Amino acid sequence: MKAVILTGGLGTRLQPYTLFVPKPMLPLGDKPLLEHSINWLKKNNIKSVVLCVSYLRKNIQDYFEDGKDFGVDIEYAISNKPLATAGQLKTAEEFIDDTFVCMYGDSVFDFSLKNMVKKHQKDKSFITMCLYEYKSRLPYGVIDTDKKGFITAWREKPEIVSSINTGCYVMEPGVFPYIPEDMPYGMDKVILKAMAKKKRMNSYSIKKGFTDVGDMESYTKTYKEFKEKLGKI
């Protein structure tokens, strides 16, 4: 099985760090973010990787080359302009002919991808999305009312629990016809298209093992955590 990692974004939320270094190459501990992703794939028995590259791609290509030094085989799908998530994925179409993993290059994963793949195959799904249980607390009191406007409850600063998209998918190659050629296109549009066609859309829920490092606050926090871990070795 192959994995496609989307690494072509401009990383605007992490500027000025990403003016000269692509976001997947920002350091976490003793190695770049993208190397952590590749190591996680290896741990889950996936050793064939397609990197969708664009912005500052030479940094990525010079570091990983063909992947042999990292215990994987790496191929490169290249675009010369930003294409958003699904648009990037489309550039990898020529490398894919079977069930594959697709993941965003700005997150740290540490859950059982093997079990997610097994669920996808067992349920004969078209796309399986990894969902993360995200908790947030509203800073306001929430007032519930009935249809006539009478107050029925007061919930002070309630905790909201939602299932959010982690940006890790197991997909069938039949997804590619849903993506237009050479234009920016979001993954949400692909999912909605597939749902409209009554394709089997599945989910794999996790409560831990996902960290988004796409903005300055989350990257700084995660960087400090990895640095602390490195200091204990």
The CATH level-2 architecture is identified as Alpha-Beta Complex
CATH class label: Alpha Beta
- Name the structural class: alpha/beta
What radius of gyration results from the CA coordinates?
A: 19 Å
Provide the low-confidence segments as ranges: none
What is the number of strand segments? 13
Number of helices: 6
Proportion of residues in extended strands: 25-35%
Q: Which descriptor suits the 3D outline?
A: globular
Average the pLDDT over all residues and give the rounded result: 93
Per CATH, what is the topology? Spore Coat Polysaccharide Biosynthesis Protein SpsA, Chain A
- The CATH homologous superfamily is termed Spore Coat Polysaccharide Biosynthesis Protein SpsA, Chain A
How helix-rich are the residues, as a percent range? 25-40%
Count of all domains: 1
N-to-C span: 33 Å
For the biggest β-sheet, the strand order reads 5-4-1-6-11-8-12
Q: What is the helix/strand order?
A: EEEHEHEHEEHEEEEHEEH
Largest sheet: 7 strands, mixed
Describe the structure.
The protein is globular and about 65 Å long. The chain has helices spanning 33-43, 57-64, 84-90, 113-122, 187-196, 216-232, and strands at 2-6, 27-28, 31-32, 48-53, 73-78, 100-104, 107-109, 127-137, 141-145, 151-156, 159-171, 201-206, 210-212. Strands 5-4-1-6-11-8-12 form a 7-stranded mixed β-sheet, with helices on both faces. With 233 residues, it is an alpha/beta fold. The chain contains 6 helices and 13 strands. The model has no long low-confidence stretch (mean pLDDT 93). The longest helix is centred in the C-terminal third of the chain and has 17 residues, at 216-232. The protein has a single domain (2-131, 165-232), classed as Spore Coat Polysaccharide Biosynthesis Protein SpsA, Chain A (Alpha-Beta Complex), CATH 3.90.550.
